[in-house]
Amino acid sequence: MIKYQETELDRTFGALADPTRRRFVTELRAGDRTVSQLCEKSAMSLVAVLKHVQILEECGLIRTEKRGRTRVCSFHPEKLQHAESWLAETRSFWTSALHGLNDFLQEDKS
Amino acid sequence: MIKYQETELDRTFGALADPTRRRFVTELRAGDRTVSQLCEKSAMSLVAVLKHVQILEECGLIRTEKRGRTRVCSFHPEKLQHAESWLAETRSFWTSALHGLNDFLQEDKS
DNA sequence: CCTATACTTAACTATATGATTAAGTATCAG
DNA sequence: CTGATACTTAATCATATAGTTAAGTATAGG
Q1: pTM here?
Q2: Position B28 confidence tier, pLDDT thresholds 50, 70, 90
Q3: Is the CB of B42 under 7 A from strand D?
Q4: Where on strand C do bases come within 7 A of a protein Cβ?
Q5: How far apart are CA B18 and CA A36, in angstroms?
Q6: pLDDT tens digits, residue range B35-67?
Q7: Would you list the domain boundaries of chain A?
Q8: Closest partner residue to B84 among A25, A30, A87, by Cβ?
């Protein structure tokens, strides 16, 4: 099993634990948006939206760039893949038909 | 895109955002463990461990059963798959080389 | 230049999270 | 029965999270 920086998965999963941030990711997946544009579809203040954007940016799921008086947000899926890999490895190993056998072999060794 | 209960993904991602809980999931993946057994490998109190176990149980990632004075925890990967599906769909759509084309086609339809 | 827009920063608030200690309950071992 | 083990519950605490309002800065348009 590949070992990732503990804090990276913390941040990625933490960021995705909020429905607003997942909506933003979904929205940005379809194309770049300014902070105001993300705000339009949310029932919260621009300041609150900006904070979510900053959290997504800090964990690398999105990047932002200032253009004139707007800040444009874009989706960057690399960190999603790290989280997805963790889930896939954690789940697929277990799901494997060899699960029981593996248990047996490990106990045999110790 | 399949739509899941908003709160389910909240809880699953929230549960996985903590390194202790990810360790427990990894540990339980290898076989059932009692709360004390999970506690042995953690630098925290049994009470703290139990709380993490309860969080994992509430979101369905594990189940627990009382046996005598011990509580045995077992891994249940179904909810992992829901989270994994969300990530895969969110990422793969974007990663696709057809991303730009897909955007164009969707705009064309509307 | 002036004004509206689009952030940005600061201060504050309420609730959630992650941990603790202390005290209680239930069961297994002798 | 008695004591140790394995939770379980309750009270508490510090910090983080998710939001708010208010005030400030910077830029596009007239």
Answers
A1: 0.84
A2: very high
A3: no
A4: 5-11, 17-22, 26-28
A5: 31
A6: 999 999 999 999 999 999 999 999 999 999 999
A7: 6-109
A8: A87
* Cβ separation B25–A90 shorter than 8 A: yes
| DSSP per position, chain A | -----HHHHHHHHHHHTSHHHHHHHHHHHTS-EEHHHHHHTSSS-HHHHHHHHHHHHHTTSEEEEEETTEEEEEE-THHHHHHHHHHHHHHHHHHSTTHHHHHHHHHHH-
Contact A54, A71 (CB under 8 A): no
The pairing of beta strand B33-34 with beta strand A33-34: unpaired
Reading the block at residue A16, the tokens are 């995705």
Fold of A6-109: Arc Repressor Mutant, subunit A (1.10.10)
Tokens 């590949």 belong to residue = A2
* Token code pair at residue A47: 């300041």
- pLDDT 10s digits, A26-68: 999 999 999 999 999 999 999 999 999 999 999 999 999 999 9
Tokens standing for residue A77: 């899926």
The answer to whether B86 touches B95, Cβ cutoff 8 Å, is no
